[in-house]
Amino acid sequence: QVQLVESGGGLVQAGGSLRLSCATSGIIFSLNDMGWYRQAPGKQRELVAFIIRGSSTNYVDSVKGRFTISRDNALNMVYLQMNSLKPEDTAVYYCNAKDRRRVPPTEYWGKGTLVTVSS
Question: How far apart are CA 58 and CA 42, in angstroms?
């Protein structure tokens, strides 16, 4: 059974930092591209950052220079370090795993962790 479990969300003041973690099981972690998405109230879910199997990363423009995604293939974990948080970063953050060995890719989602940034 595949499980992606996020943790690390919470309430933080603007300018503060949080580190999100995603623990995975039931997948061959090293063969999955991993991503963090977020969904703010009344908005569509958007990709925040992803890290491919070779550890190359990419970010949405609004978080570049503030957020860092990383992965630990030995622990089957992916992280999102969020610095200089802004109120507009408030959202539920979801962990995503994408196995591209098949077409279309197989995707898995966590249930999300809420990040609230107060002004």
Answer: 25
